[in-house]
Amino acid sequence: MKAEWKVNPPPQRVEQTRRLLGVTLLLSVLFFVELAAGLYARSRVLQADAVHLLMDVFLIGINLLAVCLATWKPSARFTYGLRRAEPLTAIFSVFFVLELLAHILAKAVEEVQIDAIPESGLMLWASLLVVCTKVIGLFILRGTIGIQKGGGYSCGTDGDLNVRGVRLHMLGDILGSGIVLITAITLQWFGKTWIDGVASFAVAFILFLGTFRLLWDAFLVLLEAAPSHLSIDAIYHAIKQVVDVCEVHDLHVWTLGADCYAISVHVKMSEPDPALAARLARYLKAEFSLSYATVQVELPEQWCSPSSCPGPDDSAPISLAPPFSLDRVSLFR
């Protein structure tokens, strides 16, 4: 089975990709403009905000990558597709941005010591341009948020939590650029040269918080942590309320990628019901917005405790029966 691109992605995904790409190009151009203005005006806070803008470009680019990878079909080698490429890219971008930020802050300390005077007029116009452009980008991203209706939930839909995260991140960036704008106005009126250095550290602190959150989210995906917005207890009790379900064990929920979650669970039944696994899998996917659901049903004669159930490292013999029997159904999409 070879990996291949889906021929006709959904119209919502095409629109989402187009908007994300447009915002990425817009902010990329703005990054070079702000960086050039910061270098010419000798303003470290403007340069730090330019690095913050570069972080936006990386973040939106990562989310654009996630949307594109959502159209990649699983292969025999990558059975879940290439969704884990997103956190790997995020980790790379975080360390790259932190290296640039450290260089700018070191220069800011040097210029505070020599009492360098930045060009406040250019700072004012450049920061005003940045704020206006980010507001425009925020409105462009408004159309990428939506909730998929109907049964089931698929990875990479235009209801992605990662795109919502981009909007929240850009909203915080507008506040950070507002610090630069206030700094330029203060310099214009009072001429205090130390204000630029202090403001650059404030912007750097905001950027550090953003990069730490991105890095932490990437580690959670790689460590297969349960999604923070899903309650394991709620899922457990929802399964327990199903008729004829006596016990629930080996419940696992993990994150595969951006807005893509999977669940596997063992349930004990009091009465045989061959269709329960399929019904329960569909219910879990629809109720908790899961993309993959695997349910193993244990009949009374098959009951086992979690400690006695064979795992991947156990030496129990492997059955060569057909993989999809009536008492075990695995539904993916």
Written account of the structure:
By secondary structure, this protein is an alpha+beta fold. It folds into 2 domains: 212 residues, Alpha-lytic protease prodomain-like; 100 residues, Alpha-Beta Plaits (2-Layer Sandwich), CATH 3.30.70.1350. It contains 8 helices and 4 strands, in the order αααααααββαββ. It has a 4-stranded mixed sheet with strand order 1-2-3-4. Helix 1 packs antiparallel against helix 2 and helix 2 packs antiparallel against helix 5. The protein is elongated, with a radius of gyration of 25 Å. It starts with 10 loop residues before the first helix and ends with a strand. The N terminus and C terminus are likely disordered. Belongs to the cation diffusion facilitator (CDF) transporter (TC 2.A.4) family. SLC30A subfamily.
List the helices and strands and how they pair.
Elements: H1 11-41, H2 44-69, H3 85-113, H4 120-140, H5 161-190, H6 194-222, H7 232-240, E1 245-257, E2 260-269, H8 276-288, E3 292-298, E4 328-331
Parallel strand pairs: 2-3
Antiparallel strand pairs: 1-2, 3-4
Helix pairs in contact: 1-2, 1-4, 2-3, 2-5, 2-6, 3-6, 4-5, 5-6
Family: Belongs to the cation diffusion facilitator (CDF) transporter (TC 2.A.4) family. SLC30A subfamily.
Organism: Pajaroellobacter abortibovis
Subcellular location: Membrane
